[in-house]
Amino acid sequence: xxxxxxxxxxxxxxxxxxxxxxxxxxxxxxxxxxxxxxxxxxxxxxxxxxxxxxxxxxxxxxxxxxxxxxxxxxxxxxxxxxxxxxxxxxxxxxxxxxxxxxxxxxxxxxxxxxxxxxxxxxxxxxxxxxxxxxxxxxxxxxxxxxxxxxxxxxxxxxxxxxxxxxxxxxxxxxxxxxxxxxxxxxxxxxxxxxxxxxxxxxxxxxxxxxxxxxxxxxxxxxxxxxxxxxxxxxxxxxxxxxxxxxxxxxxxxxxxxxxx
Length: 260
Fold this sequence. Notes:
Layout (H helix, E strand, L loop, with lengths): L1 H17 L2 E6 L5 H12 L4 E7 L1 H11 L4 H5 L9 E6 L6 H12 L4 E6 H44 L1 H9 L4 H38 L17 H26 L3
Antiparallel strand pairs: 1-3, 1-4, 2-3
Helix pairs in contact: 1-6, 6-8, 6-9, 8-9
C-alpha cells in the first residue's frame, strides 16, 4: 500500500516537473493596460513558452471544482477573494532552478506583481512525501516480512508434526533427507507466493475502490492521497520476495523440528 502511494506521489511530482510553470499574482487595482504591458514583458524572455491570464472569476471556478465542500463559504463573501494572475509555461522543464529564480526576481520588480509561485518547489515537496511514504512502507514491510517468516515457520512445524508417522516410514524405506524435506520446502515456497499474489490482488482492489470510497471529499488533495498500480518489476519483486520468505521460513522450521 505504501509503495503504491509512493508511486502516485512520484508520478505527480514528475507531472509537475514536466509542466513547469510560474504563476504571478497581481494586485487587484491594476488596469488592463498594466496587465497587457506585463504580459509583453514576460513574453520577451527566452525562457517562456506561453503566457495565460487567469481572471478572478476563472480562479473562483477552479477553486469550487477542486473544493466543492467550500462553495458556501465562498458564496458568503462580499467579493471574490482571488486576485488575477498570469500563468507562465516555461520552454525547458530541465532548466536550472537558479535561472528560473533570476527570471522570477526580474519580473517581480514590476509594481503590478503581488506574489509569485514556482511549481518546481511543490514538485520537490511531493517527492519528499513520496520518499517518506516509501520509507514508512519499507519499515512496516520489514515487520510484516518477519511476521510472515514466523507464520510460515509455524505452519510447516504443524505439518511436520502431523506427518510424523509418514516421515518415519519414509526413513525406514531409505528415503534421502532431501526427498523428505523437499515437499515441506515447496509448501513454504508456495505459501509465500500465494500470500504475495493475494496482497497484489488487495492492492489492485484498493486502487480501484479507494477513489469511489472517498468521492470528492478531499478535493484537490485526492490527487495526492491516492494509489497507483505497482510497476511490473515491483509486482514481480513482491511475488519473488514472498517465495523467498516462505522458503526461509520452511528451512528454519525444518532445521529445528525435522531431525533426520
